[in-house]
Amino acid sequence: MSTINGEKASIEIVEGGVRAWLEQVVVGLGLCPFAAKPLLEARVRIDVSLAQTPEELAGDLHLGLCRLEETPAAELETSLLVVPNMLADFYDYNDFLDIADAMVEEGDWEGVIQIASFHPHYQFAGTELSDAENFTNRAPYPIFHLLREASLEAVLAVYPDPEAIPERNIQLFQNMDKAAIKALFPYCFR
Fold this sequence. Notes:
Layout: E1 2-4, E2 7-9, H1 11-27, H2 36-40, E3 44-48, H3 54-70, E4 78-82, H4 90-106, E5 113-118, E6 143-148, H5 149-158, H6 165-175, H7 178-184
Parallel strand pairs: 3-4
Antiparallel strand pairs: 1-2, 4-6, 5-6
């Protein structure tokens, strides 16, 4: 169980918060133009890790990587490993990303699965914490998003000007007023 505002949160609450973020922010704002279809087709898995140690979390991540590799894309397109009980500090999360990347390499998943990172306090290098572009990778909890590289390459090949997606997303948040951002990301302003 995780603690949200001093209260215990169930797996269902954590999963519901992530699903709402996917629907309202990722798909609703069009941050990822490829997310709507697998979400509507129930091919997005949300796993909530109750890990308390890096070793437990590494085990949950390994399980998620194996599951994604072993399950056909027609059944499971992508997977999110949500970590409500640890890595609240963005720098700790960033350090664990090194472990996650090493797991991908050691598990021979390079070129097969990649990990995208999301965190409530996500901060790109060279930015201030409050800079708008950081919201493109903010989420209600620390999340490791496991993506199939073949699927990503397939949609990027047919999407017009995919290189413009990050810049468009940054512009979206730069043009959004602070009240709208607070409404979408209340967990970033507690």
